[in-house]
Design goal:
97 residues, alpha+beta, 3-stranded antiparallel beta sheet, 7 strands
Length: 97
């Protein structure tokens, strides 16, 4: 069966204990970014994706890499939404090699 893969952005909510929030708020601003990942998220009690925040992204927002890919039943890419200019430039580079 053929299929389509689509890349999105989405917010994820992490539920944390009040004590963790209090600890976080006592940190210096410079230490908070690292603490979010190593102390808060790693110790979350639960998490959930927020479907209302799901959004498509463009190839431009993805370093000109595709964000929609169509595959056939053998998992071969038969189409993607890479901008035509990028596809053309890549083809020219291949020919010149």
């Amino acid at each position: 069966m053929a299929f389509v893969d689509v890349k999105h952005t989405i917010w994820q909510r992490y539920h944390i204990l009040d004590e963790k929030l209090e600890e976080f708020m006592k940190l210096d601003e410079k230490d908070r970014y690292e603490a979010i990942f190593h102390e808060i998220i790693d110790n979350a009690t639960d998490s959930e994706y927020l479907p209302a925040t799901l959004d498509y992204i463009t190839p431009a927002e993805n370093q000109n890499k595709p964000t929609v890919e169509l595959f056939d039943e053998s998992y071969k890419t038969v189409w993607d939404n890479t901008p035509l200019q990028i596809k053309r430039d890549r083809k020219i580079e291949q020919i010149q090699k």
